[in-house]
Amino acid sequence: MQQKSNISNSVIRRLPRYYRFLGELLKTGITKISSRELSEKMRLTASQIRQDLNCFGGFGQQGYGYNVAELRREIAHILGLDNMRKIILIGAGNLGRAITMHVDFQKYGYELIGIFDSNIAMEGIEIAGISILHTNRLKAFCEENRPQMAVLCIPRSGAKDAVMSLMSYGVKAFWNFSHYDINFDFPEADVENVHLTDSLMTLSYTAKNHAERDSEE
Fold first, then answer.
1. Which candidate, 29, 144, 155, 195, has a CA 20 to 30 Å from the CA of 57?
2. What secondary structure does DSSP assign to 120-174, as a single string?
């Protein structure tokens, strides 16, 4: 399908939810679904779903709805999940180890090919079958293996230098857990920031307001 170039970020951020939910439908044996039925299950409006999907072309059929498997394949293609990309992880501390062990990278179109840490004592330790390398090997590794993306699980203080080096080695996209604003210094980089504490504070706000409403009733 032809993709428009001016698609809003909010539409793009809903695509993984569609993909995940359609996978859940397939597991329950549902092979076709209307936009109305999908809207009821996802708690979105049918109009919103149609508008989102129409950004990428027409998928449904009048009087039939959506073929669940076909729509999920199309969304996977839009998201690039069918093109395996090489990715490396920087920082093999608690967070880095947890991500390596519990994120199924291949399921989402990535091949984790290397793990790096600045602690020389960690070199050679295996996580999920991958041996940790010292960061002094990073340049040679990138020149040989050409990773396209990096997961940053390092302190904010060291992130700028790490990104500068990685950008010079050809890595242009980052899954960023470091709390360093990469795009401030490198606006050309593709970045997805993950602030776990921001989510926790948002939950605190929601819970606070629910408690205040309950107390007023």
1. 29
2. GGGTT-EETTEEEEEGGGHHHHHHHH---EEEE-S-HHHHHHHHHHHHHTT--EE
CA-CA distances (angstroms) from residue 216 to 84, 203, 209, 213? Answer: 53, 20, 11, 5
Q: Most confidently modeled of 12-16, 37-41, 110-114?
A: 110-114
Instruction: Give CA–CA dist 45/34, Å, rounded.
Output: 12
Closest CA to 191 of 135, 149, 142: 149
pLDDT for position 185: 96
Q: Are 132 and 153 in contact (CB under 8 A)?
A: no
pLDDT of res. 62: 64
Which amino acid would we find at residue 198?
D
Close Cβ partners of 82 (under 8 Å, ≥ 6 residues apart): 76, 109
Distance CA 1, CA 77 (A): 9
Report the DSSP beta bridge partners of residue 85.
Answer: 110
What's the pLDDT tens digit per position in 101-131? Answer: 999 999 899 999 999 999 999 999 999 999 9
Report which of 196, 92, 192, 79 is spatially closest to residue 101, judged by C-alpha positions: 92
Are the CB atoms for 103 and 162 separated by under 8 Å?
Answer: no
Quote the pLDDT of residue 6.
74
Q: Is residue 117 within 8 Å of 134, Cβ to Cβ? A: yes
Euclidean distance between CA atoms 140 and 64, whole angstroms: 54
Quote the CA–CA distance of 54 and 74 in Å, as a whole number: 12
Structure pTM?
0.85
Nearest to 138 by CA among 165, 108, 101, 111: 165
Q: How far apart are CA 206 and CA 1, in angstroms?
A: 39
